[in-house]
Amino acid sequence: MNGLFITIEGPDGAGKSTLVKKLQTAVAAETKRPLVITREPGGSEIAEEIRDIILNPLHTKMDARTEALLLAAGRRQHVVEKIRPALERGEIVLCDRFVDSSVAYQGQGRGIGMDKVIAINAFAVEDLKPDITLYLDIASDEGLKRIKSKHSNRKQDRLELEEITFHEKVREGYEQLIEEDPNRFSRIDASQVPAKVFEDAWAILKPRLK
Ligand SMILES: Nc1ncnc2c1ncn2[C@@H]1O[C@H](COP(=O)(O)OP(=O)(O)OP(=O)(O)O)[C@@H](O)[C@H]1O
Ligand SMILES: [Mg+2]
Questions:
Q1: pLDDT of residue 150
Q2: H or E stretch including 135?
Q3: Secondary structure (DSSP) of 140-166
């Protein structure tokens, strides 16, 4: 595969979606290589339907392993329908969340175990791995504050509504992943203003687009 697979990771409210929009413009101005912007959970029609089941705040009975399996199932469909074909065509794929999110949220946050979640995701994505992962680092309460702020006009989903201790465990999960694969991850201080977050991200990505 000749494509470039970039993922953006980090806790809720870190600014991932905000950064993706800025990167979309910058990449388009920098290179003629086609760019696919996508996100998880979801990213394809079937996977978006699975997303709605997972994030529905009414689904308070959902078991942690059910949640992890649904995420992996949606991811499988997203990889097969969208990510892999784009990479095979040599395109750049920029994905808002991927396997690392499941390992941090379900593996560590829910306490299923990171290894178990890595295993079901290996079944789902086979050997696909991001080339670059930008990790937007922010204190859990700061990220949640952003989501809850008056300026953010969207409803909170089932995972965002979890206790702060859950979100702190998620962050620990990410830290372990970074420790295990320091070459793939680039840490960005996401407490900075959006323009500075973008500047740091762009300094990492720009040289890799050639
Ligand atoms: N660097 C920043 N500083 C302050 N506020 C920010 C910053 N980046 C984004 N925001 C604001 O914080 C809120 C959450 O941002 P955004 O949706 O980009 O985060 P996210 O990481 O995609 O969250 P989620 O995990 O819920 O998808 C938005 O209201 C956004 O405008
Ligand atoms: Mg987002």
A1: 61
A2: strand 132-137
A3: HHHHHHHHHSTT--S---TTTTS-HHH
Distance 56 CA to ligand 2 centre (A): 16
Shortest CA distance to 6 belongs to which of 165, 134, 192? 134
Structural domains of the chain in order of their starting residue, each with its CATH number: 4-208 (3.40.50.300)
Mutate to test the pocket of ligand 1, among 9, 18, 137 (most ligand atoms within 8 A of CB): 18
For the chain, report the end-to-end CA distance as a whole number of angstroms: 15
> Distance, CA 109 to ligand 1 centroid (Å)?
20
Asked if pLDDT for residue 103 goes beyond 90, the answer is: yes
Query: pLDDT per residue over 149-160, tens digit each?
Result: 866 667 889 888
For residue 136, give the ligand 1 atom closest to its CA: 21
Q: Which of 133, 50, 45 is nearest to 94 (CA)?
A: 133
Which helix (DSSP H) or strand (DSSP E) does residue 203 occupy?
helix 194-205
The ligand that comes nearest to the alpha carbon of residue 150 is 1
Judge contact between 23 and 202, C-beta under 8 A: yes
Phi, psi at residue 47, to the nearest 5°? -65, -30
